[in-house]
């Protein structure tokens, strides 16, 4: 019987993790889990309820009383907070600008990491984030660290924004992405770093299909 392995994909914003992870999961018949959506969901609820983002204890109290549910769907993973579908609002610029602050708190990470580990327990998952290979699933059979130049990642975000009708300058996107990379890489709790046993994949000049194919080839070797 084919093994149900765990595939961990980490890397900075705009590297292509979620797009490529979704394709890999679909081709393997695996579940795709977007852990960034969970940090976004916590940030979104805090912003909606007026909880101070500087107050890690208040955020923890709020999170312990919150139900976060991930649901696979045709369009990808849906996110529910206390039963409300928040899949779209968690992608707002306001959430994006504040999520790294919330994600830096060790007490918040501890709760979300436990949920992520439970979701991946049976294998058959492709999970993307920042600390999946280093912290959440240290025994994952396949680990990928995906990156691309900051200019290319900003260009991709600009195209995504255009599609959503949001005007944005490339300079401001480079600045915002670089700042988030810095916060995510320099925080004390599970910073964004490449796991020793992760394969580095630079997607700057790699198409989505070529990147997905490369990962699928490695995954099939592990599964066989
Ligand atoms: O899609 P994008 O690359 O913009 O970001 P995301 O994957 O939705 O993650 C949003 C933020 O959540 C990141 O910038 C990190 O601050 C945090 N995050 C994290 O700390 N650990 C994870 N495993 C996933 C996300
Ligand atoms: O999840 P992450 O933030 O790493 O990136 P993403 O949301 O999957 O990708 C950001 C954008 O870049 C999406 O619109 C992708 O379609 C696009 N992309 C691309 O054009 N070429 C790649 N090799 C990878 C992603």
List the helices and strands and how they pair.
Blueprint: E1 6-10, H1 17-28, E2 31-34, H2 36-49, H3 56-64, E3 68-73, E4 76-81, E5 84-85, H4 93-103, H5 106-120, E6 125-129, H6 132-136, E7 142-147, H7 150-163, H8 170-186, E8 199-202, H9 208-223
Parallel strand pairs: 1-6, 1-7, 2-6, 7-8
Antiparallel strand pairs: 3-4, 4-5
Helix pairs in contact: 1-9, 2-4, 4-8, 7-8
Bound molecules: cytidine-5'-diphosphate (2 copies).
Q: How much of the polypeptide forms β-strand, as a percent range?
A: 15-25%
Tell me the major beta sheet.
5 strands, parallel
User: Count of DSSP helices?
Assistant: 9
Bound molecules: cytidine-5'-diphosphate
Q: How many beta-strand elements?
A: 8
Catalytic activity: CMP + ATP = CDP + ADP; dCMP + ATP = dCDP + ADP
EC number: 2.7.4.25
GO biological process, one term: pyrimidine nucleotide metabolic process
InterPro entries: Cytidylate_kin (IPR003136), Cytidylate_kinase_dom (IPR011994), P-loop_NTPase (IPR027417)
Give an account of the 3D structure:
The protein has 224 residues and is an alpha/beta fold. The chain has one domain (6-214): P-loop containing nucleotide triphosphate hydrolases (Rossmann fold, 3-Layer(aba) Sandwich). Helix content is 50%, strand content 17%. The protein contains 9 helices and 8 strands. Strand 4 (76-81) and strand 5 form a beta hairpin. The radius of gyration is 17 Å and the shape is globular. The chain starts with 5 loop residues before the first strand and ends with a helix. The model has no long low-confidence stretch (mean pLDDT 95). Bound molecules: cytidine-5'-diphosphate (2 copies).
């Amino acid at each position: 019987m084919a093994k149900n392995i765990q595939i961990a994909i980490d890397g900075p914003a705009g590297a292509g993790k979620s797009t490529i992870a979704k394709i890999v999961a679909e081709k393997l018949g695996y579940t795709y889990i977007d852990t960034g959506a969970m940090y976004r969901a916590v940030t979104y609820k805090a912003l909606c309820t007026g909880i101070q983002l500087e107050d890690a204890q208040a955020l923890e109290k709020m999170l312990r009383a919150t139900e976060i549910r991930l649901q696979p769907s045709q369009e990808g993973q849906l996110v529910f907070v206390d039963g409300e579908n928040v899949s779209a609002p968690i992608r707002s610029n306001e959430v994006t600008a504040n999520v790294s602050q919330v994600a830096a708190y060790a007490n918040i990470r501890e709760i979300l990491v436990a949920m992520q580990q439970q979701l991946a327990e049976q294998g058959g998952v492709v999970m993307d984030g920042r600390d999946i290979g280093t912290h959440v699933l240290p025994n994952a059979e396949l680990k990928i660290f995906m990156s691309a130049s900051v200019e290319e990642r900003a260009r991709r975000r600009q195209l995504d924004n255009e599609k959503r009708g949001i005007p944005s300058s490339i300079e401001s996107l480079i600045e915002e992405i670089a700042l988030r990379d810095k916060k995510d890489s320099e925080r004390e709790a599970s910073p964004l770093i490449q796991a020793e046993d992760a394969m580095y994949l630079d997607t700057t000049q790699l198409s989505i299909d070529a990147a997905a194919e490369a990962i699928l080839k490695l995954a099939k070797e592990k599964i066989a």
